[in-house]
């Protein structure tokens, strides 16, 4: 691998780490009334729960409080947040190993490629879990929040109080994770650039 490939790898890897790290705490789903890349301090669903103000640290509800009666939804939220954190750690290790490769040990090239490939797969599980919750009904639970079936696909979720009649759309955090995932996927093969 040449120096240009190493530089491209480092830049793309840094961008990947930043995008996924910034996307993790932001809203995976936001009300359909809001714009897709909305950073307003409004209602959102993150991997860690539901927030009435998305940019504030307080959660109104944890996933287990809302979706424990839904078949597997709480588990998907747990899987998504675990995979997101693990993927960032693996991408960071690969980033550090890239510097070792450039200064002393060219054999680390394949380790970096393998780590990136593993991190891309783990990130796919993360966003795939969130997309599954967004697109699929998971049972029925009208008891936790009377009058609201919280197990509907999150696309049709009206909020715990029913205030969002148009449902939800994929949020800023989800979009950033997808873009970071794409950068990581492309970056898996940048070590093959010969110059």
From TrEMBL:
PANTHER family: AMASTIN, AMASTIN-LIKE SURFACE PROTEIN-LIKE PROTEIN-RELATED. The chain crosses the membrane at residues 6-28, 83-102, 108-128, 174-193. This is Amastin-like protein. It comes from Leptomonas seymouri. The keyword Transmembrane helix applies. Keywords: Membrane, Transmembrane, Transmembrane helix. InterPro entries: Amastin. The keyword Repeat does not apply. It comes from the Eukaryota. Pfam families: Amastin.
